[in-house]
Amino acid sequence: MLCMREGLSWSVDDRSLLDAFSSFRDVTEVSIMYDKNSGRSRGFGFVQFSNEDDAKYAKDVLDGKVLLGRPLRISYALERVRGAPVVVPRISSAEPKD
User: Where would I find the RRM domain in this sequence (predicted)?
Assistant: First the structure.
């Protein structure tokens, strides 16, 4: 997955991002990140490709190219790793017995 780092034009939406990338390789998903309260773009998004070679090709070709007035700054997205929940045992406030 590729990440369009900060700096996307506020007018870029899923459709324009899909149009920019699908002309190069097989795109399976695009998503612009929006602020939950305002609904405004947060200035970055993600593009998912069918395989790593397609993602690399798109990055090589499009990194630095201008989309709707702003240069694309493309990097590989890091997958979130969810760890196991942290369990804290109950701690008694009573004094220890001797």
Answer: 7-79
39 Cα distance to chain centroid? 17
> Cβ neighbours of residue 20 under 8 Å, at least 6 residues apart?
62, 67, 72
- Domains of the chain, with CATH numbers? 2-76 (3.30.70.330)
User: How far apart, in whole angstroms, are the C-alpha atoms of residue 87 and residue 72?
Assistant: 42
SS3 20: helix
CA atoms within 13 A on the CB side of 40: 6
Look at residue 93 and give its three-state secondary structure: coil
Which two structure tokens, joined as six digits, stand for 21? 């990338």
Q: Which residues of the chain have pLDDT under 50?
A: none
